[in-house]
Amino acid sequence: MTTFIARLKSVVKRVIAPVRQPNPITKFEYSTLPWIDKGDADVDAFIRQNPGHKDLSYDLAEKMKFWRENGYVILEQALQKEWLDQLWLEAEELIEHHEKYQTLVRVDLPSYQNNPIQPIKNVPKSILNGPYIKFNDFHDNSVIGKKLMLHQNIVSFLSAIFDDKVIGMQSLLFKYGSQQATHQDFAYVVSEIPSHLAAAWIPLEDVHADSGPLFYYPGSHKIDKFNFGNGIFFNDKSTLNPDHFATYLDETCQKAGLEKKTLLIKKGDVLIWHAALAHGGEKIGNPELTRKSFVCHYSSSKAYQHHRQSPNAEPIRRTINGADVFASPIMPDQEDIFDAGKTM
Ligand SMILES: O=C(O)CCC(=O)C(=O)O
């Protein structure tokens, strides 16, 4: 009898389990795409209906049309250089007196493999001053970081492509090139609607070709999504890994005839890219060369309603240029400790 019941349970499990498994997500759901990614997107009609976008350093309609086809835009000389210098000055203070600060850094070195995310005070200065470091969410600590993240020229573009209020989700600060393999951000930076995601790459100095510049494949935001074995997001249930993802993206872009471009922009310019633009960091050719940069990820108000580190709490919002960024729920006492940006 016991064996019969055990066998019956096992049959029921085999029949029921697949039914219970939610279908893995293998593409962006068409109905939830930002309007500009839909087949009938009419940029000129949008501009006519939303005439408020004035005083920008670029032609919004032209940039939006370029975005729809290529999955990125470069806004030339859109950011004040004094703001960029101030941000890097603060980064230098953060490194120099790291024992005073709690900012989290990611260390991509074998010795940190088990615990790559560390409070900055625990990481030696020699490591902080080298490659393999990403400073996480420094905008939490810095007024100028927040002002750059939600700069009018960036927010105006993003609010047009989302047709919604923009939310600054997270940021990374780099001293050297990341050398990161080809990827698309939606697999790692997950908003509640995965297609409602974009990023800005802000150089804090002119980019040198040997410093490990960012590379990207224009048009790659339209290729079929990679399946990690459990859908389009990479997590602990995935059976394939970021190396497989990179190989798939490089091969698929090559087969589709998409050109690989290197980002050699100047301080003051900004690159904004689509959730699904394939991109990565080139190998560093000259280890003496820095590639100081600030990378911000964004979503829309509809798609990002709670801070990822506190999904059940109402976020504390800071509003700049009509866009929001949520205060850190884990380090409230570290918010805006670098406040020189207040008077800039
Ligand atoms: O700056 C880089 O080299 C890579 C940044 C990046 O790929 C990202 O933040 O998604």
UniProtKB/TrEMBL annotation:
Supply the InterPro entries for this chain.
Phytyl_CoA_dOase-like
Required co-factor(s) are: Fe(2+)
Q: Which UniProt keywords are present, listed alphabetically?
A: Dioxygenase, Oxidoreductase
Nucleotidyltransferase: is it a keyword of this entry?
Answer: no
Which top-level group of life is the source organism from? Bacteria
Query: Oxidoreductase: present as a keyword of the record?
Result: yes
Signal peptide residues are none
Q: Which Pfam families match?
A: PhyH
Molecular function (GO) terms listed? 2-oxoglutarate-dependent dioxygenase activity; iron ion binding
What's the name of the protein? Phytanoyl-CoA dioxygenase
Tell me the organism: Spirosoma linguale (strain ATCC 33905 / DSM 74 / LMG 10896 / Claus 1)
